[in-house]
Fold each of these.
Amino acid sequence: MKDLSKINMEQDLRKYFGFDAFRPGQKAAIRTLMEDRRVLCIQPTGYGKSLLYQLPSLWTDGLTLVISPLLALMRDQIRHLNERFGIPAASINSDQTAEENAAAQRSASQGRIRILFVAPEKLDNLETYEFLLGLNVGLLVVDEAHCISTWGHDFRPSYRQIVNAVRSFEEKTPHLRVLGLTATANQRTEADIARQLTDPAGNPLKILRTGMDRPNISLWVIPVQGTAQKLEVLEKLVREAEGAGILYCATREGTEVISEYLTEKNLDVVSYHAGYDSERKRELQQAFMEGTRKAIAATNALGMGIDKPDIRFIVHTDIPGSVTAYYQEVGRAGRDGLPARGILLFDERDRRIQDHFIRSALPSLEDFRTVYANIRPDEKNALPGLFAVKVRTGLHPTRVNLILAELTEQGLIKKKLVSRKQVYCRTEKKTAPDLTRYTNQNSVRKTELESMLNYGRGEAGCLMQSLRVALGDDHAEPCGRCSQCRPDVFPSDFAASFTGDAARWLAERDVPISATKIPKMSQGFSLLNGDLRAPLFVQFMRQRAENSKGKSFPQLPPDLEKLLLRKLEFLRKRHEFGAVVLLPSRTWMQREFTGNAASRMIGIPVYFDLLSWKEMPAHRQGELLNNDQRRENVRDKMHITHQLPNISGHGVLLLDDYIGSGATLKEAVRVLRRQAGVSGEIVPLTMARVRWRLGARGMI
């Protein structure tokens, strides 16, 4: 590390970043980090916390390692560091290909970069972890540091490994500098972070806290009832808003519904969520960053770290899980200091989504026992990897990851590399797992959700003040600009303007089936959305199979037949089909009717028995507990019974009654590609879309 007295901080700030002056508190924070080595910085979103490690990386002996869950932030910062600031940087994360991660590792090991970003889940990988420990790290940055605290609103088990990494780096580098960054830590979370990041000698961590006011942001709460009202309010808000914005949604489905509706209203809005492949996410983010999109409807997979200073509005279309998460997300608006709005569309019934998330995040003692019992060699004496544990247990994949991390942390199991594959085995320790962290976190989340509901109801008074108080800002005063402080300037005509247009659109909306690269399948559609439980969906599901009294319905309900013919006409104009192929089914009573209708409409032959089960799956898909089990249930069980006549490169319309996990549909596509030699498009069309429970049997 350079001698601080010989560093001209302002000169380097101008030279590398083009800034004439530091923002308030930045220079003092950097000086504290350089002199005292351990700092926790708690500042509002948009205060330039990234500079606190970017600038010192120029003076640090060794690499600056940044552990951050914000993949969007990684992409933005790496581009800026490399292209604008001339500071070489790279990242290792799950959104990149294996080749991209390998290139980043080579650059780091060869000393060709100053800053390396790493996603926390990569620390759970033994190979990556050992690689990182072999680097010469001079500054270790824990971004979103509240995640290491059980008392934080966003505690993540993979962040437990960060503390272990800090300890390991300390053994190698006694003078290691450690910087924790967060915008959302109350006093209890702050104390817990400080305890974990304090150095082995017990020297106290320096804590720098800034007032949490965002004086350029006006906060609104708009009461709504149901999805249809939300859509109409969003259309009005987005159409009238200046600049670009983010529409945060609690679910992936929500992002797609909103983007489709607003697009049909001639508003340039796209959806973004973790279900999209890495390339698609990069394209969406880049377009939004460049200002070519009016808004992006996103889950929190977009990350709070998207580095776009001129976001003029943030709308939460569902209740967030906590006041602290809400503050962090709404804080993406107006980072350029110009006026911006943060708006919550408040429907009390939306708490059901967050209640579900809270329940899903709390593993039971029985869940721990189930996972532990399945950490055993198989019949070939091979130890299980992650995929095997998921298939064996049937638990929700997120819960399996959580429990494996916790069992490892508590020393009940350990990770090993066998032929470069990470596997798990038991240790000699036999004590029962301690679930205190999760009971604490469950209590925190319930309390945080109630605070968020109070915010939405208006029971907390001034909106900005209530957020600041929740974050430990004891000097917060009423802001004088929110919908609570200034109801006179708050638009009150939203409810009066509802037309019912969105409700009609929802009733007729089909659901896209996402395209896949492996196997190669084009985007398709489901005609009915099971999430909405509309009368036509209920009628179809009741009539699709013979009932208990032996009554059958060989034809589709008339209204569904109309939807089918309309969608077939749409597809016929956009694709060159050569055949209609149906998935095998023993129970779908309208299978023949539907196949013949498609054949007549498009004018191509239909093949009812081309695809068949060479071996019946051991279970019905709805009886299984997670999608890993569902994939294994149908893998290599299907074949073709005869060759498909030459369709000259034309596509196949693939029909089925409903789609759940999509595993059966993808298996059919694989068979058509490999065995039937289909080279053209394969477009799926199902009558309905349902969602299977994860960790439990049946539909949601």
Amino acid sequence: ATKAAGVALALATCALATATSGAIGRVANRDGASPAPAAPLAIAAGALLRRRFRTREAMFVRIFEPGARACADRGLKLGIAALGAKLSLSEIGETATAAAPAIAATVTTGLTATPALRRAASKRFGPASGLTRKVGALLAAGTSVCGVTAIGGLAPAIGASQREIGVAVANVAAYGTLGMLAYPWAAKRLFPEGGVPAGVFLGLSVHDTAQVVGAGMTFRDAFEDEMAFKAATVTKLTRNLTLALAIPYLAYAFRSADAGAGAAAKRPALVPGFLIAFVAMAALRSLGDATESVRDDARWKRFHKATGDFASNVVLPTSMAAVGLCMSASALSGVGVAPFVVGACAATSVGVVAACSVKALDAAGAFRGIGAS
């Protein structure tokens, strides 16, 4: 019953954001796309609603937060899995293969540049800044790979304290959210034709999976570009797989200073369950499309279209509203400016490398023909 209250609040917030987005679109006399997409409105509405409860935080946490967190986590995973019905295995493979060089460039930049930025900032701000080596490693993982998931996977491997984890999570929350809101518009300027290049850029430059989904939905709704949304999702899920290499690499950097810290550390799953479900749904779609008796059946077409649309238009937007409901100002309280300077520089470095590498691949024709069938 406790979770039901939070889920209901997320659904209501999503419905309000969707209705507001549609109303703004009608007032602006635009056919189809709204200048105020539903995804950022849902997050903003959730965050504002959470702020309204700031004087009764304990009540909100008790009644609504369990359901909101379940919706933000499991709802997002369910939505991503169902989104696989919109794609075929060939589309996933083509996008992931084409984006691989850019993924390698951006992840490598984040993993190597962030610790260097941490060292420079530590000299500038001094020991009191709290910029420990572990904070630098956590920021590197969160910025370059997959946000909070990477931070949670690395923390036990290097023996990070709750304070150090909190600093890294606060950075991911702050700059990932800023990127989610700003990068869709930057992507349109960088890649006016939209499509796969714009989606790959979004999948590389925004921190967390939920934030990438939000950025992709914003681009899709603002510019009526479904392909960019699909490409952003595939790119981010492919980028998440580098966690299997990033965690051992960053943990190894601490072995000499903290011998054996990662010996019995908890490791994240090599391939997340929702990614397997996403690929399985795409495989089911591909199998159905390849079977002549099924491919031309109206019921099959209705099924995969309804499944994908339900994920895109209901489950994922509701998850975005839940993300907003889970945003608490207390996550940023007591955190000094120095970690945010490092986080800003690291996020900018990853964003610049993402833009340059995707531009180069696009110019070389790497994305040509993807999703054309």
Amino acid sequence: MRVILLGPPGAGKGTQAKSICNKYSIPHISTGDIFRYNISQATPLGIEAKKYIDKGHLVPDELTIDLIKDRLKQDDCKKGFLLDGYPRTVNQAEALVVLLEEMKLKLDT
């Protein structure tokens, strides 16, 4: 199962995500978790993202989609995944569509 959950803060995304991920044994993926992990591991993408975060800037969409791509290629995503709160912009949504097509993945509807 491949799922995207979108909604404003307090809408219950986290609660629903936990339930869905437990039921289908899929990873719960958020950009915040991806940023923190890559920064803590000092990956090349994490180092680049940290430069923006340290300045109080948003991480550019291109870098964010590269981080998402790396995460979706991991073994635990082979049976599916849940993206929590991503994409946030039209540009990110368009980039995600391209990424999923490149990876030959379809979202469940």
